[in-house]
Amino acid sequence: MISALIEGVLAGETRSIARAISCVEERRTGAYELLDALYPHTGEAHVIGVTGAPGTGKSTLINQLARAYRRRGTRVGIIAVDPSSAFSGGALLGDRIRMRDATVDSGVFVRSMATRGAQGGLAGATIDAICILDAAGYAKVFVETIGVGQDEIDVARATHTTLVVEAPGLGDDIQAIKAGLTEIGDIYVVNKADRDGADQAVRALQMMLEGGILGSEPAETTGNTWRVPVCETNALEGTGIAGLVREIEAHRAHLQQHGGLEEKERLRAKTGLEALLREELMSRFVARLGPEEWENVISRVATRHMGPHEAIAHLLAR
């Protein structure tokens, strides 16, 4: 079954791709075998993270970017991450509603993923899903984070190019700082630029970039500083999309020219390995400890009979 799934993914079959992502997302039998077999076929996709506060229009923007790349004949993969319910573990997965154009194009694959408790703005299996789409031949893979602000830094470690989307009317001139997205943006986008205050938002971002307050840190990794641009778009109308595509392509070219792509790949590998190691070590630790002892310690901490640090020392001693 796994071998057939691998062949289907490499052939770009939509059903096989969807089943493969479900397999790794749910950690079914054969998931790791599947990923290891696909991994040598990856490394060609340009992975683009799209983050920003809720209400900035990230999904609509991605829909327009996908249309622009499809006009070039480029196959596009989209991973849209939504927050899970604290009660059911499910998610609304409403991004597909705002990506109607993309979902009916055979050259675009859209996958909604629930965070399932993962922190950092991404789902736990996001990196695995990127790997599958890369192996399936999607040249552009967009990853939309859940839009929570402060915790959305993992997207910069999992992608090559990070778009930070702002919109006028969501806060004051330092909204970008308060959102905690100060160092991860390769490109800043002021969406809904037809609204009052858009020009002011652009000027504020430009001033912060010139002052060194915003922007990614390419100088140490590439040996040549990337000029972080601020783009204005109106995703509903499709205006400014062509200019944004040019900046996305310029950033990829910059990474290729100055060695940043290799550095980004190393960071992505490190992030993926650390995530897998944490998951595996935690699983082995709890299995060795025993579920009863684990639940007992949780209860003692919850009832204030033991402090968290005391609990960790106790567990490690066991």
What class do helices, strands and sheet pairing give?
A: alpha/beta
Binned, the helix content reads 40-55%
CATH class of the largest domain: Alpha Beta
Q: Gap between N and C termini, in Å?
A: 40 Å
Question: Which word captures the global form?
Answer: globular
Low-confidence stretches are 84-92, 218-223
Taken together, the total number of domains comes to 3
> From N to C, what is the helix and strand string?
HHHEHEHEHEHEHEHHEHHHH
**Share in β-strands:** 5-15%
Largest sheet: 7 strands, parallel
Work out the oligomeric state of the chains in this entry: single chain
Average residue-wise pLDDT: 84
- Number of E-state strands: 7
Strand order within the widest sheet?
3-2-4-1-5-6-7
Give the second-level CATH assignment, the architecture of the largest domain.
Answer: 3-Layer(aba) Sandwich
Number of helices: 14
- Rg result: 21 Å
Q: For the record, what is the CATH homologous superfamily label of the largest domain?
A: P-loop containing nucleotide triphosphate hydrolases
Describe the structure.
This protein folds into three domains: 40 residues, no CATH class; 217 residues, Rossmann fold, CATH 3.40.50; 44 residues, no CATH class. The chain is α/β, with parallel strands linked by helices. The chain is built from 14 helices and seven strands. 48% of the residues lie in helices and 12% in strands. The protein is globular and about 60 Å long. About 5% of the residues have low confidence. α1 packs parallel to α3.
